[in-house]
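Morning F.,

Quick status update on the modeling queue. The single chain you submitted on Monday has been processed. Sequence for confirmation:
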Amino acid sequence: MLMNNTVTDNYDKLKYSLFILPLLLLAAIAFYLYSQHSLSTEGYINIQKDWFYSMNGELSQFPETEFNLTQIGDSLISLSLLAVFVIYAPKIWEAVVSASLVSLLFSQLFKKLFSVPRPAAAFDNSTFEIIGKTLNGHSSLPSGHSITIFTMLTVLMFGFMPQKLLLKIFWFIPFIILGLVLVLTRVGVGAHYPLDTIIGGIIGYISGISGIFISRKYKIFSWIGNRKFYPIFMVLFLVCAIITIIKITENNLPVFYCSTFSLLVALFLITRKYVQK
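Structure tokens below.
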């Protein structure tokens, strides 16, 4: 499996120094908030109020695009789009599963720790655009969708990273741009403040590389590439496909069609491979 070998080789070359930059970025954001006397919940919201209104006003001009793209932050959708890698690059899934568990821990921990009210709970809802369901809880920081998006992108980015330095730069930049476009949809739909998404993206990056290192060292999910466990994924893909089809009946979005198609293709391929002698 050439693709899986490529991913494995790339993961084996990664260094723990990759944690330095995201930690420095989080420290820089914390220092900025401290310098602006905005470490309190009220200060955190107020310092972003103008940014939020401005970005929400601009991005919400494309409601269908924003609502479609923001769905990729749903773990069901993002994992569905990666379904085929179970067959061709199970190492990706080993890292993704490990990283998803780390991201879930971070997301739940920090949301409860900070307990920041979402924009719909802090501002008059008639003063900004809300696309989709109105979220009123106190779970704004960090953005869970943003964590998920950057977790998945990080695992993919390092898994297929080219070897030459110049190519690495051109490979890295599009992933970051794509990630930022996707996470900022959370501002566009009125669900999060800008810093929620940036901080969430950084945490997602940390979760992604954490998942890679965990899967590399402990081999917890090395069984994923074993053919005898394919029935587990056959059932999983079928159930997820049914759920995404139900989502289509509720919201007729192209992203749900893409997820369903990805799942059905993966289901067909993994079933065919399983029954082969």
